[in-house]
Specification:
Layout (H helix, E strand, L loop, with lengths): L9 E6 L2 H5 L1 H21 L8 H4 L4 H9 L3 E8 L8 E12 L11 H4 L3 H9 L4 E11 L8 H19 L4 E9 L3 H9 L3 E10 L12 E13 L1
Parallel strand pairs: 4-5
Antiparallel strand pairs: 1-2, 2-3, 3-4, 5-7, 6-7
Helix pairs in contact: 2-4
């Protein structure tokens, strides 16, 4: 793993990019990189996520493709500027949405991917110009060697800017952006507070065991913070 004495030169891209969707070889490579980075994050920081490596490593390739190509899931990647689109990844965050009304409200007891509305619902949300739009942030992770350089901060603000631009385009005036954070992850909750988020709820979250994954692991309980930022446009 690379280490830097100075702040790495990076840029932020959004995936999938249009050209990658049109090139099946590039799309396959991008899906593989997306999957690998997610599984790496679950291995290196299992305490930071409600999911587990054992669970997600069993996902078929179709699941990863569907996540990457879902029109309501936008992943932002901080990558080294001198590398290709599939190389030099330093950090990622995924924004899910928009979702409208109570159905789209963030909940610690529901996976953000489960909450994610279908493409058809997303189109209806876009038509409801006077509704509240909900977005969920998910899977923020920075590789250990690149931490302390503000990558997570930059990614969060890129995601917020994306939500605001999307809402403005559809003349939606009220946006809520939510995220679930482990209460013991002080650095993560402080980062989100720095970006304008506030705690709206504390709750216990049960992380089930994964018997189908062939790995013995007991269920665990997490105290989590539901954090949210409201934006009036």
């Amino acid at each position: 793993m690379e280490e830097w004495s100075d702040r790495p030169a990076y840029n932020i891209i959004q995936i999938p990019q249009t050209h990658s969707m049109e090139d099946p070889n590039l799309l396959s490579e991008l899906t593989s990189r997306y999957k690998g980075f997610r599984l790496q994050s679950l291995q290196l920081a299992p305490e930071a996520f409600a999911s587990t490596y054992e669970r997600e490593s069993q996902f078929p390739v179709e699941t990863w493709n569907n996540r990457l190509l879902n029109p309501q899931a936008n992943t932002f990647v901080a990558k080294l500027t001198d590398r290709g689109v599939c190389d030099g990844w330093l950090a990622t965050i995924t924004m899910l949405g928009p979702m409208s009304g109570q159905q789209g409200a963030i909940s610690a007891n529901t996976s953000p991917w489960t909450s994610l509305a279908s493409e058809e619902h997303g189109q209806r949300a876009a038509e409801r110009r006077d509704s509240i739009w909900n977005f969920h942030l998910n899977a923020l992770f920075t590789v250990p060697s690149a931490r302390g350089n503000g990558l997570g901060y930059d990614l969060i603000w890129h995601a917020i800017a994306h939500a605001k631009a999307n809402a403005t385009e559809h003349k939606v005036a009220h946006v809520k952006i939510g995220v679930i954070v482990d209460s013991s992850n002080v650095a993560a909750s402080a980062l989100y507070r720095k970006c304008g988020f506030a705690v709206i709820e504390e709750s216990m979250l049960s992380i089930p065991s994964d018997p189908e994954a062939g790995v013995e692991r007991s269920a665990r309980e997490l105290k989590v913070l539901t954090m949210e930022q409201e934006i009036q446009l």
